[in-house]
Please model this.
Amino acid sequence: MLQGLNARIRKFAATLLTERLDPASAGAAVFWGIFIGIVPIYGLQTLAAVGLAMLLRLNKPLTLAATFINNPLLLPSIVAASVELGGFLRHGSFLPWHLAALSDAQLKDQLVSWVLGSLVLGLVVGGAAAILTAAVVYWTAPSQRSLRERIRFVNQTFAKSAQFDRGFVRWKMRLDRIFCLLAAEDLGSGTVVDLGCGYGMALCFAAFADQGRHLLGCDLNVHRIAVARLALSTLNAEPIVCDVLHYELPPAGLILILDVLQYLPAEEQLALLRRCCSALEPGGLLIFRVHDRERGLLSALTLGLDRLLFSAEHVGARPLILSAEQYRSALQGAGMQIEEHCFRNRLPLAHLLFLARRAAPESAS
Ligand SMILES: C[S@@+](CC[C@H](N)C(=O)[O-])C[C@H]1O[C@@H](n2cnc3c(N)ncnc32)[C@H](O)[C@@H]1O
Model:
């Protein structure tokens, strides 16, 4: 029991330390930590940092660590710089400033300067540190290096596609955080099947580590499949035009369904998931993405964008997203081990990613 508790604590600590450490999120955590550390809300800084990190889904330890810019060594310089900066912004010139000035009649004036100056100083120092952090994470984190290499691989694979399609692939790779999440996962071995594969970018992404990997995909869109067939012709890939509902699933190590379930009626969605679970080899992984219905305005925006897409593609139905619980129980019913990630995309879209693994023989007991 103690061992179980230990493992849970270790897992919790690891999650805390590593959550959302992509360049933009790490930069945002440092920015807010430093900003909070500089503005004079002494006594409330820890609370404010943790609260904001939870609200904005930032890495909490990093946000908190950045507030330690406010330490006994730097505090006098921060206060002095804030007062001077505030004074300069209000009166147009730096004032001779010393601690005694805080106790004379100019105290109120100095206090206002301090608050104003600290806000500006927080923005400037926080902004500079955020840029530096994002750059360091971007260039040094192994996961980011591997992500960059994979993205380059996909872009090169599609380099001979028509300009519009090539551009679409580039933008999608740049903007869609799904690829950061996929890069962080062990995508296993064996056949990859992408249901509703579109251009086949995810297939290509999955083949980065093993370019002989068997890649299968289907989509109703004839143009996208034509682009996929041409671009992936150097890989062991077979994208075909076919309805996911009629696609015969072979035994697979990885099955992807990214932003496709919403095109299907409820029962068909759940039946497809069940079919995928039984097609997976032991240890195989099913990854699917749907909208997150629980994120208020972001959920509304995500649904709104999908409605636009549906009407542009003349889909004769409305996007249908089931509750997370419905997806979860379909997977649980099939005996899968489930992981869920709620994430906000770079565009203001809210998604839910399910990773469902079929137990490997040794962990099945
Ligand atoms: C939003 S796109 C996602 C494409 C791809 N999965 C990706 O992430 O880039 C949805 C795709 O699902 C395809 N699709 C929708 N209903 C389908 C069905 N019943 N069978 C096969 N493909 C389908 C559409 O043609 C479209 O290419």
In short: The first helix runs from residue 2 to 18. The pocket of S-adenosylmethionine is lined by residues 196-198, 201-202, 218-221, 224, 243-245, 258-260, 263 (CB under 6 Å).
